[in-house]
TrEMBL record, chains A, B, C, D:
Domain PABS: 59-296
Family: Belongs to the spermidine/spermine synthase family.
The protein's Enzyme Commission number: 2.5.1.79
Top-level taxon of the source organism: Eukaryota
Lineage summary: Eukaryota, Viridiplantae, Streptophyta, Embryophyta, Bryophyta
Signal peptide positions on this chain: none
Gene3D superfamilies for the chain: Spermidine synthase, tetramerisation domain, Vaccinia Virus protein VP39
Entry annotation: catalytic residues: D212
Protein known as: thermospermine synthase
Length: 367, 367, 367, 367
């Protein structure tokens, strides 16, 4: 089923007035694009929050089981909005250390104070390496931040964002105002569908396809979007010549990169001619995170200066995490991780999938 | 069977032997130098631990308050050794996610499975950038791992390790066998003294001085070893021409680098002519960690290949984290952190110190 | 001062002595018999601990999963002793809220500040209801506290304590000095054996048999000591005329009494002519705890005054929890729990056992 | 300001339909009066919840700091409703171990599965001891459960419930349907006012005054409602001859009764001629809880049978916790607690108040 969503204005009138006032203040802060400019205001806000906390400790806590015996636990000062879809529960909460946090089925998806790291990283490297990206297809990404970053590229004429869960999309459109501009862009085409089904049935090809998917988790159907057969048979035919696939690829830290990262890397290496893994530390995920780019045409050697030049010429608005030097650093994985990647032989198939415990981004596209 | 028990002495020989077997196995694993070779055995061990854990959840947990409302919590499966000095308590525990962990005053100092990241990072960049380092002075470092890494450089003729706490040194020498070789090296000179007092009174100069100190924490005396006056008046006079200071500099993550990292960087920038900050993610610290090198003589531009060449020629034994490419990545801080460093104006003095909450390495040198 | 260190043997004698002093102080405090008299000293100690804690939060925590999503978590300020047997690990730790705590396999067995509630409750009601108890058999109880309470009855000539784990017995004898007197009593006969095997093979009968066993837990062999066939065939034949069995019977709170308490009660009701359940709140167990007395001869109606009279006449030393009025309160379960007990039809057999999650006392007698 | 509230029907139409369905199911379960009859359905529900939990652990947790180093932590499976008043935040959440839980300012007030213990205990003893209670004044109690219990007494003609926070009252009236009947009773008079001000200004006297207040907490104004001057000058003049005051009196466990319970008891003993303390374990409070009754006329000696007779004759609907035997047990505090109460000399005044850490019921009436 292919549903084209009409864009309407956020119905803020629905909130009660008390909430609206507080809500807007916080929503304003969640705007990644304005983050650095608003730093002082933000720090003031955080300071106030922390002073309040002096009097009263948090009693609601979010606990992520990174592994069975490793927990990342942070205080929640306020429940901002609650919702539910047929697929999952949806919550927007105010966390003390990471600002506003979006939870799907109780799993952290995105945190106000560092989501720019993840979203700049998943979008810009592929778009900057491409000589002239005009069309982008996002698998998942219902939150809107990945689309927001892609739309910063003035050469991009069309972004298709394909998420399975309409409620999540509606929820984020209404409550995460930092993506409001993206959601209302005429260049954005919003599709509510399973990404695999959508790619199979659509007749277009794209310059860049982005896998902003949840991690492969045992029992979830989403792991099929990391398999060799999916990449080979469904996805690759939808890439234009020179087209690039980039996918989030799970935790890539010193202790966690063997869970799925090395396998996704190797699976792509066995499927595409050119593969580039990279990684960056995302504080709210409690780990270094990994992504992999893949193409059947060679990636050019781009120097720092050229990267900075392309950022300046192609991108409207400022990036806060990524520049030429940062991209260099992300691409230069450390010796320990490289050694694993180089020696990895596992190929991700439906019969031999690998899963991660409960790390980070989860259950987004489950049916 | 009816056994009437005579009161006899506890048969410690019995359970000691049980313990001993397990202990030795684990101690062997803690040997960073053998880590990669022993990967399979290690993974087997971790798998067994985790299977055991299926039956029985951890009931002892170590909780680090990264911030007031942010906790890093991991399961402890066994208390291995306990001790105490006049300065602090000393514990060696078996953690599930990070292997053996050394705690001083209940604060994580070093974890078996990723200590090589921290210790390779604090030692090798400065020694590799130096044209011919012969003498090294370590402030703190009682655990022995920093000395172990420094002694890998065959050009180094003398390593002075100056820690204030003899018990910690003794404890680590006996219980952390991976550093046994280092502790017994004739090139190691072990001094039990306050690092400041030691530097003030000693007549030698050094090629590299390493600050393997605990973080500046409010109320701790150690923060004075991060002040401009200490660097200027005490430390710099003890550096030979071409000498390099490198110090650990606290958390350097997207959300944490303003706590002390930017200030330590700026303080050194106001004190030395050439300053080089760098960082890497250390999983057990739950953050990206920062270090800063400083010198009054220019750092040479060293390419990846030259770094790899120096590693091959100078270092005995293998590095597991660092190579030319990794060093590049560490030096290329991201745009967000660079912007803060570039704009930082705070100078760390005894009257205007900055402190961190309770992050990572703590209280090592307190009097 | 510049001290060149010779490598010498660890001066364990030094820090041992430090430890010893502290240890002895704490061990002294664990003496339940002196608890009330030493209240002021104790409160001083607790106050000091808490003031210390103002400066430094606990980083080691003990977490008991009362249920899957309910945790009872308390700070550990010190590891006092560690040991292990062929059956389990044994630890004595200093907790902040409950004083010294004995852990077997990481499960709380007994806490200094409230163990008198559990141990007075399991021992004295049966011994006070018996007209003239001379011999007592304790199944389990290796810690020694149950024997200590039984030995307070001057009419008791012989206490057989039968625990399967010699190391636990040795550990407690050495480290829990409050039971030292009990352990050295000529009236105590210590047997290292499985309680079932011991009862089967012994030729004696007893006036009171006490089941100070761990809870029935899935996979543990100890649950067989709660079955009807055990009570009927093994235990009952070892009771003298007028003899009383009393057993701990798991959590008996408003929300937890259906787990095993009602079933143990009903099983005894189907096996003995007279059965008396009772309960009391034990803070460190995070619940109300239950016990059941059973006999084939009628329990006399004893008024408060008679209970107080018997306490005064039979017991040497003071009770801190139990008197006539308290016993009345323990026997008068609330309406909600009584209703469940009255309606319970489940009988505990080897084929239809009930288990509890991970509550409280565990794994003590496992083979 | 004295506002008399008109009763209106719960506007369930406001919820979205998805929520309504789930909500009603859960709200139905929260109905204390139907609890036992619906036990099977309830257990089915809990079983389902727990099976769900097998697949997915809780990630939202409520943590109560019972003391600084003692935590009571339970999983939250769903946020049901959120609100806020000028005094506090208001949340209704679905907890796994305790069912629906009402939180004010993040502090647990009442839990579905055991609120009947607290509310039967605070209401019925005083009303049963009174020969013919016709009028009841409740200080606090905005949740409605205390009024619900009082209205079960057919002899009671008027219940005045005086809570300071209209939003809490409105929230509970709409979302806690088990109290709907009470809220719509013509015998209930709802007053939004500070309890002290209301008592001072009103001209009536009452047969029973119930202090369903939050605990005395440092910095909160509510502690003044526990002072001798309040009892003497404001409250006592509003009691009819034979009138009884009953107040919640904080934790009364073996380890916690010295915090405020003994002091409140002694303060009342110094103010009224006859004082009766009692206590019961409330699982969700993680402790035994205390109440104190006080009167200037003697309490009659009522036997169990008489209590049961009065319950049968006066109370419409069934009690689930309390009967004659249970009341006996509650009144018979254990020896340890009695000893403290008997020896307590502290009197609670505005200048010498005692406070508890953060236990249980909090901040309800703060201005």
């Amino acid at each position: 089923m292919h549903t084209k969503i009409e864009i309407k204005h956020a119905q803020t009138s629905k909130h009660d007035s008390l909430h609206e006032k507080r809500g807007q203040k916080l929503v304003g802060l969640f705007n990644g694009m304005e983050k650095v400019k608003e730093k002082e205001e933000e720090e003031e806000h955080v300071k106030n929050c922390k002073q309040q906390q002096q009097q009263q400790r948090c009693s609601l806590w979010f606990e992520e089981e990174v592994e069975r015996d490793l927990r990342w636990v942070y205080g929640i000062s306020k429940i901002l909005h609650i919702g539910a879809s047929e697929f999952q529960t949806i919550e927007l909460v105010q966390s003390v250390p990471f600002g506003k946090v979006l939870l799907l089925d109780g799993k952290l998806q995105s945190a106000e104070l560092d989501e720019f790291v993840y979203h700049e990283s998943i979008v810009h490297p592929a778009l900057l390496y491409h000589s002239n990206p005009k069309s982008v297809f996002i698998m998942g990404g219902g939150e809107g931040s990945t689309a927001r970053e892609a739309l910063k590229h003035s050469c991009v004429k069309k972004v298709v964002m394909c998420d399975i869960d309409q409620e999540v999309v509606d929820f984020c459109r209404h409550h995460m105002t930092e993506n409001a501009e993206a959601f209302s862009s005429p260049r954005l085409e919003l599709v509510i569908n399973d990404a695999r089904a959508e790619l199979e049935s659509c007749n277009e090809k794209f310059d860049v396809i982005i896998g902003d998917l949840n991690d492969p988790v045992d029992g979830g159907p989403c792991f099929t979007l990391y398999t060799q057969s999916f990449y080979m048979n469904i996805l690759k035919p939808k890439l234009n010549f020179g087209g690039i696939l980039v996918t989030q690829a799970g935790p890539a830290g010193i202790l966690s990169h063997r869970e799925v990262y090395s396998s996704i890397y190797n699976t792509l290496r066995q499927t595409f001619k050119y593969v580039v893994p990279y990684a960056a530390h995302v504080p709210s995920f409690a780990d270094t995170w990994g992504w992999v780019m893949a193409s059947d045409q060679a990636f050019p050697m781009i120097k720092m200066e050229e990267t900075n030049y392309r950022i300046q010429n192609r991108i409207q608005g400022e990036l806060h995490f990524l520049d030429g030097q940062t991209l260099c650093a992300m691409l230069a994985l450390n010796k320990h991780v490289w050694k694993t990647l180089a020696g990895e032989t596992h190929i991700f198939t439906e019969d031999s999938a690998r899963f991660i415990h409960g790390h980070g981004r989860a259950f987004k596209n489950q049916k």
